[in-house]
Amino acid sequence: MRLRATYSRVEDFLRDCEQQGALGGLLVKGEVPVDLELGASVELEVVTPVGSVQLTSQVIQVLAGVGVAVTVAPGALEKLVEAARSSSSREGVREPSHGAETARKIQLALHGDKTQRAALLREPNKMIHAYVVRNAQIQLDEVTAIARMTTVSVEVLTFIASRREWDRPEVAIALVRNPRTPVPLAIRLLDRISPSDLRQLAKQATVREAIQRAARKKVIG
């Protein structure tokens, strides 16, 4: 699948590069392609007034009505950024001076320790959460706790459900009970939970009706 990020002004391009992870990621604004999944590989074309570049990226967040956040390998946009900075300097355009804090937080989310990850999950900027769950050091107990959170995005919950290494009953039941987990996904996850949890879901009035019905059918057989 192909995505295109088009910038009509170099200052907008430079601002996004600085704000969105110091070239670690980029939000491609616009209509979200149908059936685009988290983790999917995409061909990204970045177009600016000073040139364009094509690269292979991975979807890290899907924001309905906003766009798609994708990874950008370190240095992949370096030449384009240099050209944009040179152009803005010649034209007397001030380069963006903010966004370093967002970049710092994204790097911390990707490489920080457990305490730092917990703090970042309290960030109101949900884009940061998507990087926390991609931290190579994250543990199963943290993932289970995140799966229970109603403050993270649907995309984060979907990403957790998609990871084979987190295919555990405790993660599945946390996602099923989370009211932000899409109902179709929650119903699919019923296959992963324990028989005792399945019976509880079938009779608990607080469980969403569609999930309760699906659980009841599985219990009855």
Q: CATH architecture of the largest domain, please?
A: Beta Barrel
Order of helices and strands: EHEEEEHHHHHHHHHH
Mean pLDDT equals 85
Which percent range describes the beta-strand content?
A: 15-25%
Structural class: alpha+beta
- The unreliable regions are 93-98
Q: Distance N terminus to C terminus?
A: 40 Å
Can you give the helix content as a percent range? Answer: 40-55%
Integer count of domains? 3
What would you say this structure looks like, in words?
About 3% of the residues have low confidence. A hairpin with a 3-residue loop joins strand 4 and strand 5. This protein has 3 domains: 95 residues, predicted glycosyltransferase like domains (Thrombin, subunit H), CATH 2.40.10; 40 residues, no CATH class; 72 residues, no CATH class. Helix 3 packs parallel to helix 5 and helix 8 packs antiparallel against helix 9. The protein has 221 residues and is α+β, with helices and mostly antiparallel strands.
